[in-house]
Inverse folding.
């Protein structure tokens, strides 16, 4: 059974005949649009030579601000220059996107036809912002303060702002999907009370539980110290295990959100309200040479998440839910004495720099900005939202010819004084979708476990009742755009 979609596109028709009495049976048929006469002719012909031409376009979305942090409008393509790996590139595509630049309303779909393509339903907003409450990486007391600040932020929303609120625990929970109804968002947030994170507690043990003082003297003291060292090593291994778990779960969630927003046109903002996670473990000065420590970096996970966000044109704005921080030894939450000879005092620069590095890396890779060591969470969220109100999109065809999967640095200059720009700092020159088995498995796993739908692949479905009308059988026809599929022949 073959079905033909829009004449201007190549489609696959996927038909299902389902018995509605418990959906006990479904028969699927998959085929490319064709005709029986053409198919019989093709059987007698020799295989045709296929000429494949690939053109690669890199698009960069950027925000231009004046000295007061106000978005600047009215710039032209001639106001920008762009470098790829230090080589000047011709800007082939240029556009300004703002609140008034919304896509025209789409024609209504035919009866009994459904799609996940927002651009075909007329629901595609000009700019959207997701607020992600990260309960997995944030202590419960910090979650409560952050919630109060976000309530303050929501009360300042404008009618043009379209916002969604998600929460991350062990999985993503959609508290409220995109809406311009501020009152509805506030009602949902008033009910949200956060959640204590057992993985966070396990990965950040109290200072009292590590490097304790064995006390005593002589043989008893030595035995007690050996026991204490053993317990310290065991606690550290548990801590490292849960830190790795948090990092992997968080980056998978960010990737899933990017896939969910991929079909929405224009720049999207993700305000990640979180205590974050370290960019690496076991590599700081206190840990090097410690056999109990796991040595691990999360560069691969961060890059995969950043790649997904760049493909979706999603900029991430990490906002530290912990607010203004102080030295650990002076924190009121630290029950240990200010000086412990077995745990030397760290310099000021050591205040959670690992977590800050994670925030900075994600923000720089996607064109966002990281906010930390500030109590103005509401103001940080407001600045992140304002970045999406007026943006510029630049597109160019790289002339380097080296699609080897390596990271390429992008530098953009605006040829007017006194302006600052914010954009993603580069891209991975990947020739095709990642072919590494680990990358493919990670992408499939993320899609399978994600509680939010991925819109990377556009679908259109038509539901037809079968005759007689009371048979309890429906025919479902699903169309897929061939431009969004890639097939490879395995010998």
């Amino acid at each position: 059974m073959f079905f033909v979609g829009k004449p201007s596109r190549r489609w696959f028709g996927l038909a299902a005949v389902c018995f509605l009495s418990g959906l006990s049976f479904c028969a699927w048929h998959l085929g490319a649009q064709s005709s029986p006469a053409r198919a019989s002719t093709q059987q007698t012909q020799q295989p045709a030579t296929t000429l494949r031409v690939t053109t690669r376009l890199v698009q960069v979305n950027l925000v231009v601000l004046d000295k007061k942090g106000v978005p600047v409008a009215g710039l032209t393509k001639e106001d920008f220059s762009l470098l790829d790996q230090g080589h000047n590139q011709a800007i082939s595509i240029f556009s300004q996107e703002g609140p008034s630049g919304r896509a025209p309303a789409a024609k209504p779909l035919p009866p009994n036809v459904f799609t996940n393509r927002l651009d075909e339903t007329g629901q595609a907003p000009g700019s959207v912002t997701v607020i992600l409450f990260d309960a997995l990486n944030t202590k419960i007391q910090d979650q409560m303060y952050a919630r109060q600040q976000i309530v303050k932020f929501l009360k300042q929303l404008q009618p043009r702002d379209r916002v969604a609120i998600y929460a991350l625990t062990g999985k993503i929970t959609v508290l409220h999907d995109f809406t311009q109804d501020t009152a509805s968002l506030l009602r949902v947030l008033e009910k949200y009370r956060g959640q204590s994170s057992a993985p966070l507690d396990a990965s950040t043990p109290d200072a009292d539980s590590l490097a304790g003082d064995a006390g005593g003297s002589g043989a008893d003291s030595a035995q007690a110290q050996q026991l204490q060292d053993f317990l310290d090593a065991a606690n550290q291994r548990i801590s490292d295990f849960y830190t790795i778990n948090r990092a992997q779960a968080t980056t998978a969630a960010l990737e899933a959100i990017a896939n969910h927003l991929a079909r929405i046109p224009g720049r999207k903002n993700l305000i990640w309200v979180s205590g974050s996670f370290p960019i690496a473990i076991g590599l700081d000065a206190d840990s090097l040479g410690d056999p109990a420590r796991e040595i691990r970096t999360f560069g691969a996970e961060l890059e995969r998440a950043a790649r997904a966000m760049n493909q979706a044109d999603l900029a991430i704005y990490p906002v530290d839910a912990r607010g203004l921080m102080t030295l650990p030894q002076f924190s009121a939450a630290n029950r240990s004495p200010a000086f412990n000879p077995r745990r030397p005092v760290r310099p000021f620069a050591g205040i959670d720099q690992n977590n800050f590095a994670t925030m900075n890396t994600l923000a720089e890779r996607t064109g966002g900005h990281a906010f930390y060591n500030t109590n103005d969470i509401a103001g940080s969220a407001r600045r992140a939202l304002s970045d999406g109100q007026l943006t510029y999109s630049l597109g160019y065809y790289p002339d380097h010819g080296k699609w080897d999967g390596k990271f390429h640095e992008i530098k953009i200059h605006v040829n007017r004084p006194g302006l600052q720009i914010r954009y993603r700092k580069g891209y991975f020159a990947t020739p095709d979708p990642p072919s590494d088995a680990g990358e493919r498995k990670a992408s499939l796993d993320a899609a399978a476990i994600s509680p939010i739908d991925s819109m990377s692949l556009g679908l259109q479905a038509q539901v037809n009742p079968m005759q007689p009308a009371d048979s309890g059988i429906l025919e479902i026809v699903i169309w897929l755009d061939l431009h969004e599929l890639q097939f490879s022949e395995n010998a």
Notes: The two ends are 28 Å apart (CA to CA).
